[in-house]
Structure prediction request, 725 residues.
Amino acid sequence: MTKYIFILTMLINSVAYSQNTFNSVIKDSIASELLSGATANLKGTSNGAGADKEGKITINNIPNGKQTIVFRYIGYEKLELEFNFPLEQEIPFVFLETANKEMAQVVVVGTRSNRSIAKIPTRVEVLTEEIDEAATMDPSKVAHLLTHSTGIQVQQTSATSNTANVRIQGLDGRYTQILKDGFPLYGGFSGSLSIMQIPPLDLRQIEYIKGGASTLYGGGAISGLINIISKEPTSDETILHLNGSHIGAFDVNMFSSRKYEKIGFTLLAQRNTHKIFDADKDGFSDMPFLTKYNFNPKLVFYISDKNQLSVGGTFTTETRQGGDMKLINNEQATATNFYKEKNDVSRMTTQTKFDHKLNEIQTISIRNSFNFFDRSLQITPTFLQGEYKFAGKQVSSFSELSYTHKKNKNVFVSGLNFYTDDFKETPLQSATLRNEALQTVGAFANYVFDIGQKVSIESGLRGDYVLNQKFHLLPRVSALFKWTNKLTTRIGGGMGYRNASIFNQEAEILGYKNVQQINRNTTFAEQSYGGNADIGYRFSISDKVWININQMVFYTYLKSPLVLQNNGTNYEFVNANGYTKSVGGETFFKLGFYDFVFFAGYTLTNATNHFNGNQTVMTLTPKHSLKGDLLYALPKKWRIGVDYELKSSQTLTNGSKVPTFWTYGAVVEHYYKNFTFFGNVENIFNYRQTKISSLVTQPNYTPQFTEVWAPLDGIVFNFGLKIKL
Prediction:
């Protein structure tokens, strides 16, 4: 009996001595704040504990050998760690990463540092999931997506042909630089057609950098930069997209992507048409006749682990015609029916990029693009004057050699680039050809580094020499302060410039008739400085409920901007005697609640001109703007959304003010196997500018000089089908 008691005692002692204890402190991986209430469990058992108010956690009775402990906390990613007990040393801290990764995993391309949006010091807004919704609403152009973005206004520049540009923070569209995959392809004579020709179906994400950003890619980004990024061949997919509307639109779009071991490709092909449409039956088009073809191929060669080459292109042809409804079919003009505006456009771009990894931390990149743009613009101002035609060919190129050094969390990028822009007017009706040729040599350096775990700095410096003109030195700096995992602040600023050019909205309205060539001896580049600061707070109440709030303020000062002067029979761009200032703020709120997402964005803009000692309000700039939507998404079944927009009163060129108005829209998508059926309605309550005032204005009693401040087409229904092949 004594023998059995002895053996049992030894077994009890052995079990007792094989039990181990785990002690640690649970912290946030970014801000290192204590995570009181976090839990830890021995995997496969009910043995676990919770962290106290100091983040300390203790688990007892852990057997010897390899054991896995699972750590959890609301709003953070689950973490599983394997330990071998008994431990050779203590584990002082366990760090958890936030699970609120709405944009946290998105890598920002535009700033060149390729950091995630949560870790980049420069304030960048990125759209990803919204692109698919925008393609449903309007697959022919990206303008619809930009329209619903906070702080951005798509300004229609023609009441009849529907050309438009993008305004950021109240400044004119010429101060917004638009890139495609980091290549500056859209500008000059193509500026008013850029967003009308970029389709959303092959896009991966869109990045906004608001405020002066010329340091990144050179002149043009005084009010901001929009980088439109196309998809890479990371997966195999083919999508056929058909769309039509009750006012005459019909679109056929196809996107395909394939990836093999050493090569991948993407291809977008589309045909977009629109019948001419007169919403108010006043005899003038509110939507133009349109026929457009687009073909975007891209090849990616995965040469080796160290070398990658991509070659892409864009081929676009377009005819866009509006005006008097009786003249669209080339009918004979009369003294009462004469006004017509027509654009014939062809564009071809090439994009080549080669990346070579010297080692794990150093990369050399070579990039080159060519843009060939041919456009003719025909306008009939009056019956007696007859048709006036302005046409020309714009050839631009962009070449860049850059070096990237990444070590730990620090990123240093430097490089040289050469930009050319050559416009040659086609000899037609102008006595003096208004050719423009610009060549710019630039050098830049950008450095992103962390100071501890809570502060990140991004500094940049660019020097641009515009041949035979001027040297521009463009510093820029931004800082990110991560006070906690939930609370961050960004602050930054920089300088910008834009070369003087006749390709501005004021000349576009005139059809460039009697607009004189830029006098390079007396007219110089527009220059600016400015900055913005924001504070953001985001947190998760549970895995299904999260909130994201951001408040931003901005300031831009533009010295001696170009203004159009009438010197009798001709028009000439000169530098104003004074400055333009834009001050304001943006409030962003987003709430996720199970399968619902609610978004609201408010913008306050106070943009003013201070010329010759007088202050005037910037025209066509609402002081208050509110945009938002409510989206319900049931994966693989339904997506239902409603959107709204408020624009407060705007001031027109003649000093008059227009009323405040609301517009609303809705979209429904239903998924069935490989099919997606969709329907969309814009401007549900049929608000139109022509209900307030006529399109016909002086001096020629045509829509030529009408400023567009509200929708012209009224309520629009579109519907269609997407098929995954």
In short: The mean pLDDT is 90. The helical segments are 2-17, 130-137, 143-147, 194-197, 214-217, 505-510. Residues 125-228 form a domain with the Ferric Hydroxamate Uptake Protein; Chain A, domain 1 fold (CATH 2.170.130.10). Residues 2-17 form the longest helix (16 residues).
